[in-house]
Design brief:
The complex is a heterodimer of chains A (459) and B (388).
Chain A (H helix, E strand, L loop, with lengths): L1 H20 L5 E9 L3 E10 L1 H11 L9 H14 E5 L2 E3 L2 E6 L3 H5 L5 E8 L6 E8 L6 E7 L7 E8 L5 E8 L7 H31 L1 H11 L4 E4 L2 E5 L2 H27 L7 H20 L7 H21 L5 H33 L5 H25 L5 H10 L1 H17 L32
Parallel strand pairs in A: 1-8
Antiparallel strand pairs in A: 1-2, 2-6, 3-4, 3-7, 5-6, 7-10, 9-10, 11-12
Helix pairs in contact in A: 5-10, 6-8, 6-11, 7-9, 7-10, 8-9, 8-11, 10-13
Chain B lengths: L4 H20 L4 H14 L3 H7 E2 L4 H4 L15 E2 L5 H14 L2 H22 L56 E5 L8 E7 L2 E8 L2 E3 L3 E5 L4 E3 L2 E3 L3 H13 L2 H7 L24 E2 L5 H15 L4 H13 L5 E5 L13 E6 L2 E7 L10 E6 L7 H4 L2
Parallel strand pairs in B: 1-3
Antiparallel strand pairs in B: 2-3, 3-4, 4-5, 5-6, 5-7, 7-14, 8-9, 10-11, 11-12, 12-13, 13-14
Classes of the chains: A alpha+beta (459), B alpha+beta (388).
Chain lengths: 459, 388
Amino acid sequence: MKAKLLAAAAILLSLCAAAFAHRLDEYLQATILSVEKDHVQASMRLIPGVAVSSSVIASIDTNGDGVFSKAEQQAYAQRVLRDISITVDGKNASPALISQKFPAIQEIKEGIGEIQIDFTVDLPPGSSQRRIVFENHHQKAISAYLVNCLVPSDPNIRILAQNRNETQSFYQLDYTQLSTGSNSFFSKVWSSLRGWTNSVGVASLFRLGMRHIAEGTDHLLFLLVLLLPAPLLALGSRWAGFAGARRSLFQILKVVTAFTVGHSITLALAALGLVRVPSRPIEVLIALSILLSAIHALRPLFPGREALIAAFFGLIHGLAFAATLEQLGLGRWERVAGILAFNLGIETMQLIVVAATIPSLVLMSRTRAYPFLRIGGALFAGVASLGWIAERLLGVHNPVDVLVNSVAQHGVWIAVGLFLLSIVCWRYPSSLVYERNEIPRPNTKMRISDIPTATTIQA
Amino acid sequence: MHFSAKKIIGVAALTLIGSSITTSLPDTATSRIVAAANDFLSSLNEKQHQSVLYAFNDEKQRATWSNFPTSFVPRGGIPLKDLTPAQRSAAMALVSAALSAKGFEKVQQIMEGDEVLKATDSGQPARGNNGNPPAPGDRNGPPPGAPAGPPPGQPRNGANRPPFGDPPGGAMFGKDLYYISILGKPSEKDPWMLQFGGHHLALNITIAGDRGILTPTLTGAQPALFTINGKTVRPLGPESDKGLALLNSLDESQKKQAILGFRLADLVLGPGQDGKTIQPEGLKASSMNEQQRAMLIEVISQWAGIIHESAAAVRMAELKADINETWFAWSGPTTAAPGKNISAYYRIQGPHLVIEYAPQTLGGDPSLHVHTMYRDPTNDYGRGLTAK
């Protein structure tokens, strides 16, 4: 008797408490649709009011054991899906259940329980003008409906109109969808190309590529330091004097091209997901590549094989570029357009930097002042690379990054200053310029070891 | 003109000293909030400290807010009832430092309203069974046996309320049951959050340097109209009145676009719906005239102006820049009884804004019970500023 009273009291208690909290006599069903290219994702929240909670609970907990079993949850979710009807362009479509989540019975009794049902509807290919009708008849007598759609994330989809009846049990969504428009092969290709360029944002990726290389000082430093000895001839373990304008330019072109080919290959492979390398070792290897090219600028490590080295380390730098592209979260095929734009941006900026510095290098390399620039540059790059290696490999924080970046920020002025300096060195104190007969020239008949040691510059 | 050199030097020196004093005393809104937060934290004992503090990125605590009474949806942090009077005033001083004068007044009125809800409720004679069955969990339910209809003789203020007794100890409503929590470490540089809320109130305030972000924030009121010391109070009255004034300023063809032909039973983007951007509907402000746009901005400022003045100024500038991309939609009755709130739903949505005003049918008269939401889907919890 007492137990019965207590039970009755408990039920009343829960009824009263619940009514305060939220809905009283309605079963709120709020649906948010999200239109994608080939399907509609729907998320339904069902919140029974207190006054209707017992009937809703009874319809879920069909065996009345006070628990929503997995099977009961599944069955109820399927029932909800049966009670809704969806048409796509006038044709019936069937929703497929993705997931369902149920609160505790007690929460529903209190009016704060929220059932969540997610489902998806496939969209067959159709015309560019599309219409989805979503009707919800679930528990119509006691329900209050809300239906909305999210702003589409696909820029090819534009919502035109939403129409509902007074209770929102009927919801009609009209939208346009580009790129499924025509069935002809040409227009399909065209529209998907347009889709790419829009969705990828070719222009912004081009700019991103430029910015990436401009701000990615380690990539530029590697290239510039590798170019430092490019106008020079290697003599055994030393750098000799000027190798001649033609030969220098050819050498520079070879190095830059090799670097470009190298990083383009791995950028493409990694961006397409064909290669995957963790970024930490890559960053360390990049720092190492700078160290090696700095040493090479001091003493020839790999004379005549600069292009090969540039290509090899280009492969590694490309993997780092891909990591940047990866962060943008582009789809696999969008990446093809993306890589192209991004890489073009990188190349453009790279060429700008090379074009801004090479004339100075070539001019200066004819003078006795050049060793100072070469050695100074190599030492700077060497120290920077050691700092980066320490930071990236061992996690030792040091000011190298800040230092290099602050130098790089004044890159334009440094390039201008370097150019003026090179002109001064080349034109004026004539003692700085090699005498004509002093300039070691490549001689096909002469082996490197034949060049008189007197003409070498002591590095 | 008789300016002696001495005088000029004197004035210059004074100016210099004066300006150096003012620059050496940090007096920005953020520094005041941080100082108030530190005052509050230092007033707490170790255990209270622990219950107040969370990690800045604690997503669970961030989203632990609701329109429900705290007995149904427990909040994180510490309730005012667990604080000494001195700690309590330090807590309220912190909330006040983070808000504008108007914003703080609104918060106090919402809390006052909940106090009224509690008072009118405990004013009821005990009904039915006086035995206290064990309440499930930590939830304090009202005593059982409450009838389903309004009991006779209920005071006016409670007339719109569903009829419930108060649980012993009155632990369901009232000023005691507002919770305060701090996410991250109060700082003038690094981002941190202050949360304050309870029934019908959820302030999520992110402080990031000199910026202050109030989104998402929920305000609500039940009763939305009450008298205290003979003074009639409507905590969300301006929101209602200015919204209706804007609607009334529209011509027939504008109204046709603004008024949606269907019922909106509740908030679309209420608690738990962070970061969603629904397709906007209604009348676009680019189709309004200058005066109507100014009225729209005035409505928006009822929410955007809850935060302290300098943060509100930044936010209002952002929202004004968006104004032509901002939409106004209305659903429900287009009139209100004099001195009462509207019983219609309205929504204002822009690229960085969602405002919803949603009257609740619970209690019978929807003009007396309202929930509102204030969001920036691009900047929930200041993510747009703090995420890197």
